[in-house]
Amino acid sequence: SNGPQRQLVVRIEPVLEGWRDCTFFTRKDIIRLYKRFYALNPHKVPTNMQGNRPAITTLTFEEVEKMPELKENPFKRRICEVFSEDGRGNLSFDDFLDMFSVFSEMAPLQLKLKYAFRIYDYDGDELLGHDDLSKMIRSLTRDELSDVEVEFIIERIIEEADLDGDSSINFAEFEHVVSRSPDFIRTFHIRI
To answer: Domain EF-hand spans what residues (predicted)?
Structure first.
């Protein structure tokens, strides 16, 4: 009989519903992502999504960064830090799901912008200042530019985006510039 099997589906249903409500994923997507999460460290991640173990199990940045979706991304550490509960890049399944949800095609532009801004705002002061921009450019160019070139790009960005003249970029200014750039949406997208 398929009694126990049906039992499992019923038992994980409320958990899935919760995840479905706060992401842009279907049930099937969530199960697929749980399998991906599990595969990153089968010794650590419970086989069953039920109960509180999946909620408290976290994978380290080193375990997560190997995913093909992240491996080549110059901001992979920063992305994991922003989505991790502890800010250090360790991800619970909830964090993992949030991350893929924001990067999914279904996520609205506004949400993507909010997270992109947080990813580039290294010091967390809600402004993209000189140092944030410098780190962002060095990550993007994989550290291949000279200091002079980096400074030149920072000046150009500030010239273009800083509307209130405070030499840094706040969220509204960031939004203004980026929403005119169709490239942004394409780059801020991970297929699962």
So the answer is: 108-143, 149-184
Does residue 6 surpass a pLDDT of 60?
Answer: no
Q: What six digits make up the tokens of 72?
A: 């080549």
| Per-residue model confidence (pLDDT) at position 53 | 67
48 and 134 assigned to the same domain: no
Which of 43, 45, 91, 85 shows the shortest CA–CA distance to 69? 91
User: Which domain covers residue 181, as residue numbers?
Assistant: 109-188
The separation between CA 34 and the C-alpha centre of its own chain, rounded to angstroms, equals 16
- Residues 171, 152: Cα–Cα separation, whole Å: 22
CB 165 within 8 A of CB 158: no
Where do we find the tokens 């003249």? 165
CATH code for the domain of 78: 1.10.238.10
Residue showing tokens 């589906």: 9
Residue 182 sits in the same domain as residue 149: yes
* Mean residue pLDDT across the chain: 86
Rg of the chain (C-alpha set): 19
Mean pLDDT of 36-55: 83
Q: Are residues 62 and 134 in the same domain?
A: no
User: What's the number of domains the chain is made of?
Assistant: 2
pLDDT digits (tens, 9 = 90+) for 88-127: 999 999 999 999 999 998 899 899 999 999 999 999 999 9
